[in-house]
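Is this the right way to post structure tokens for a design question? Let me know if I should format differently. Anyway, here goes:
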């Protein structure tokens, strides 16, 4: 499935945090503020729009307040998948 650069940045942020935790698993949660750090290196990315799209795709689940996002089974598979080369390029 094609992903936007902003979605790739969000997935990369989950990869990074799951690597620190030692495992990618369904239900792994991250604060929205921590996810938004993905745009520090690329401020042109609309991370909020990507988060909304990823919830609609079923990759993430959002809490009622919109302050935490959790990986679904599909989202965990996306995090485990190799990152596209375009997501690895540093600008």
């Amino acid at each position: 499935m094609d992903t936007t650069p902003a979605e790739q940045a969000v997935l990369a942020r989950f990869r990074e945090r799951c690597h620190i935790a030692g495992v990618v698993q369904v239900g792994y949660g991250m604060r929205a503020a921590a996810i938004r750090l993905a745009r520090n290196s690329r401020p042109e990315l609309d991370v909020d729009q990507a988060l909304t799209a990823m919830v609609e795709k079923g990759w993430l689940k959002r809490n009622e307040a919109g302050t935490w996002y959790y990986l679904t089974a599909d989202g965990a598979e996306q995090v485990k998948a190799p990152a596209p080369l375009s997501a690895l390029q540093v600008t």
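Format looks fine. Someone answered above. Worth noting: The beta strands are 29-31, 60-62, 68-71. The first strand starts at residue 29 and ends at 31.
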